[in-house]
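Please decode residue identities from the backbone states below.
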């Protein structure tokens, strides 16, 4: 850790400002304690060091500011309003808060006696065997619709294999593109093939269709090439694990959470900050 090294080398006096990005991760079961230890260590230094914490999803701003002896600034401004929806059985239901999400989910599953609000939109069921599952059909339809309109879409899945399988399914339904765009996609394939790890078989099939996946199984060079291609609108859809939600800025017109699980863990109240961080990529 840089702070420990600075203390050991007696250069800590040169430290004036520390920026803690994704500050909501302080509540993470696996990595949160590291951020808490860092903040505690900085607060205990003899000289005063300014801590700047940033987060798009921090729920308890006042409490954290009190612990850090800090002032807090909260902004509700978003250049593009974010609308959230719950997709269930090929029907799309608008939701606005975490409580409305759980209420609508319980109503749709028949766990509550009251009826959910009428869907704002429905998705046409598919006759293809691979898309018989309503969730899979909805993910593919929504991603393809976004790409067809000329925008980017991010799809988050719970695991690496799910990312690759979903990328293949979406790529098979993608519309055609211009010869110029196709040539740029071929260049991306060539760039990936020239890397020491070679070209992934799934990416070789999906990139010409404008689709790629992103997870921790890729090297840093691979991820950089794919992110650049997405930024330049060569790739229209990226299917990713939650690693993309932390620290990587790939804006999208539509963000899709495929299923209500992250890995083996179901999404519950304590995990909502992770999906919302994904949603704020929009």
């Amino acid at each position: 850790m840089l702070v420990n090294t600075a203390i050991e080398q007696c250069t800590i006096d040169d430290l004036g400002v520390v920026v803690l990005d994704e500050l909501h991760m302080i509540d993470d079961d696996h990595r949160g304690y590291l951020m808490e230890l860092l903040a505690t260590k900085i607060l205990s230094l003899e000289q005063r060091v300014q801590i700047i914490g940033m987060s798009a999803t921090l729920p308890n701003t006042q409490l954290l500011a009190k612990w850090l002896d800090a002032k807090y600034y909260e902004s509700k401004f978003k250049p593009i309003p974010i609308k959230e929806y719950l997709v269930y059985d090929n029907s799309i239901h608008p939701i606005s808060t975490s409580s409305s999400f759980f209420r609508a989910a319980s109503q749709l599953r028949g766990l509550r006696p009251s009826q959910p609000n009428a869907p704002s939109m429905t998705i046409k069921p598919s006759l293809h065997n691979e898309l018989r599952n309503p969730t899979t059909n909805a993910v593919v339809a929504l991603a393809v619709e976004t790409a067809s309109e000329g925008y980017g879409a991010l799809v988050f899945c719970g695991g690496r294999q799910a990312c690759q399988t979903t990328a293949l399914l979406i790529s098979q339904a993608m519309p055609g593109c211009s010869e110029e765009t196709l040539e740029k996609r071929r260049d991306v394939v060539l760039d990936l093939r020239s890397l020491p790890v070679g070209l992934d078989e799934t990416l070789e099939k999906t990139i010409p269709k404008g689709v790629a996946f992103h997870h921790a199984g890729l090297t840093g060079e691979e991820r950089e090439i794919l992110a650049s291609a997405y930024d330049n609108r060569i790739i229209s859809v990226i299917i990713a694990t939650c690693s993309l939600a932390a620290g990587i800025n790939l804006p999208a017109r539509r963000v899709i959470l495929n299923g209500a699980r992250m890995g083996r863990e179901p999404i519950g109240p304590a995990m909502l900050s992770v999906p919302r961080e994904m949603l704020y990529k929009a």
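Observation: The longest strand covers residues 84-88.
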